[in-house]
Write a structure and sequence with these properties.
The structure is a homodimer. Chain A is an alpha/beta fold. In chain A, about 45% of the residues lie in helices and about 15% in strands. Chain A has two domains: about 10-55 and about 155-305, 3-Layer(aba) Sandwich (Rossmann fold); about 55-145, 3-Layer(aba) Sandwich (Rossmann fold), CATH 3.40.50.1100. In chain A, strand 3, helix 5 (about 85-95) and strand 4 form a beta-alpha-beta unit. In chain A, helix 1 (about 10-20) crosses helix 8 (about 155-170) and helix 5 (about 85-95) runs parallel beside helix 6 (about 110-115). The interface between A and B is medium-sized, with 21 and 21 residues.
């Protein structure tokens, strides 16, 4: 696993070659009815159709595959209430190593089930950052497992950036705008690096809930700001922006868009209804933000990353 | 529009060329977790991602595009409680002609909305076959619209068969079994003709709800049997098998599988959860039927057509 704190385009290309046999090249789909509603041409990169139902499979596989045999020996571990845990469990099971996932005891049943379905070992803890970190420390000490962070690490960022490599290869021409959700920032940072290299005229934008707008505040102030007391239905985007990701995003990203929860839910439902795709609230924030600014995006060609589809079908937000 | 009562492989090839610019070549997707649960390798042909959310776009476009300018002049019409109405409205709007859709006054709101979204004119009638046919007759007399039947017509069957053309082209090797839902039988009949021509060693099977098993009864008895009093959650499969389709299915199809409603709902939920695809109950019947007979399909390579994704998100069956 790379430990230097930089991510280059070459690392993303290497990641793509490394993970090619393990993840899907996900389709890009569109809807005329959504285009008509938006007043622009939107293409959706369907990472909800990715292995384990989210783009997180890219970074997790790249990180695990980058470990030396010695580093892999004790297995891998992480703390996650969401998709990174399931993705890491899947990546580990395919390498024949163990994955220990620390999950808060209020984690949604659907995410707990996903980790188990991929063979992950779960350790529950209290739902605080301190409890998660302490449980992970104890677990790594006991098992010798290697910590694979959910977003703020070069191998994870390089893996997530492979989504933008695919976008550049799949489209006939680069879009005017590329929008990805931003929570911890791994996806946005990786895609920004790949996007700058391959689609230099494309504007790269993040999108986040108005109730967890730390990336926007950080980018606008120029100073990293943690996300205290997030309040949003988009459970994958409540986390603070990673500091390494902030450095990359500050350099490479054109803007951070915001969307209210009501608009996120409406956009989620629009994708379910018109695209026939199950996406989670976090995946809908890009569309919600674009629909909220029709004048800004009028006539443009926009690619939006649908980041994941792991949602509890018994607790839909409508 | 062709009026002779045969469908040849050549007609399906011509249909594919005719509709190529108007419909999607839908992706084929799989899930390791579903394969593990099923004990066989299943690939899903995602017609829920088709234009207007169902395979019906294929037949509707082929039928409308096959009309001469004179035949098109008065527009087109049909009676439909479901996906054929929306598909026909879409096809007509793209040709710049009108579409009149007779719908029963108990049609689901989501299907009514879809017809309207594609610009169709709706005439409501009582929810009986006699009322639908009478309303359609009056409407065609008044407007000069041409009736495009939902399934029992060569141009419609040839259009639906293009799904199997794509399957043969998309897969590296033909599957052991191809399963499509069977209601009116247009999809199954068209896919059987294309499948026999391109994948002669592939078994072609229909799947239908146990509560609307007229295709199975007809095939087993050798005598066409209407579906009286259907009782199933799969609203797209309640109709009787078309007589032309019965003649084709009797000749070309290896078996008709059945699934109970509880299994259909479970399979639908499995596809939503694991594949992140919104499918309607009718689209889940193939998977439900395959999962119900693990010994029969063990180790086989099975392609299942997910026929559509038009479902009311406020009235999910779980």
């Amino acid at each position: 696993m790379t430990d230097t704190m930089t991510v280059t385009f070459e690392q993303i290309e290497q990641a793509a070659a490394r993970i090619a046999d393990y993840v899907h090249c996900t389709p890009i789909l569109g809807s005329e009815l959504i285009d008509r509603a938006a007043g622009c041409e939107i293409r959706f990169k369907c990472e909800n159709l990715q292995k384990a139902g989210a783009f997180k499979a890219r970074g997790a596989h790249n990180a695990v595959l980058s470990l030396s045999p010695g580093q892999r020996r004790g297995g891998v571990a992480t703390h996650s209430s969401g998709n990174h845990g399931a993705a890491l469990a899947l990546a580990a099971s395919r390498m024949g190593i163990s994955a220990n996932i620390v999950m808060p005891d209020n984690a949604p049943a659907v995410k707990v089930d996903a980790v188990r379905a991929y063979g992950g070992q779960i350790t529950f803890c209290e739902a605080t950052q301190a409890a998660r970190e302490e449980a992970l420390r104890v677990l790594c000490d006991r098992t010798g497992a290697r910590f694979i962070p959910p977003y703020d690490h070069p191998d994870v960022i390089a893996g997530q950036g492979t989504a933008a490599l695919e976008i550049a290869a799949q489209l006939r021409a680069p879009p005017d705008v590329l929008v990805t959700p931003v929570g911890g920032g791994g996806l946005l940072a990786g895609c920004a690096i790949a996007g700058r290299a391959l689609m230099p005229d494309t504007q790269i934008m993040g999108a986040e809930p108005a109730g967890a707008d730390d990336a926007r505040r950080s980018l606008r102030s120029g100073v990293w700001q943690p996300q205290l007391a997030p309040d949003t239905v988009a459970d994958g985007l409540r986390t603070s922006l990673g500091e390494l990701n902030f450095a990359i995003i500050r350099r490479e990203v054109d803007d951070i868009l915001c969307a209210e929860d009501a608009a996120i839910i409406e956009a989620m439902r629009l994708v379910w209804t018109r695209m026939k795709l199950v996406i989670e609230p976090s995946a809908a924030v890009g569309l919600a933000a674009v629909l909220a600014q029709p004048a800004r995006f009028a006539g443009k060609r926009v690619v939006i990353v649908l980041s994941g589809g792991n949602v509890d079908l018994d607790r839909l937000p409508w």
